[in-house]
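User: I'm writing a short report section on ligand binding and want a predicted complex to refer to. Could you take this sequence and zinc ion and write out the structure as tokens? A short remark afterwards would be nice.
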Amino acid sequence: MVSLNTSALNGRVTKVCCQCGLNVAGKLRTRDSVGNYYCASCFQAQHAQELRDMLAAQMPEPELWRKVPLEAYAVYA
Ligand SMILES: [Zn+2]
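Assistant: Sure. The structure tokens for the complex follow:
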């Protein structure tokens, strides 16, 4: 798959977290399906929330579950 972006056109590929702007070249990073890079902490933060929303929606009282720490869901995972 060829991805085209301006940094590649400059002949220099920069890997920057799309959330906080941290340069993640050479660091632990994640790339999503559309090619955005995330540093480890942003990825974790973002996906923890997604996971919580998803799990909370399956609970009898989603609004309450949305407020509990992610760890509390472990028993249901
Ligand atoms: Zn980041």
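A remark for your report: The mean pLDDT is 78. The chain has three helices and two strands.
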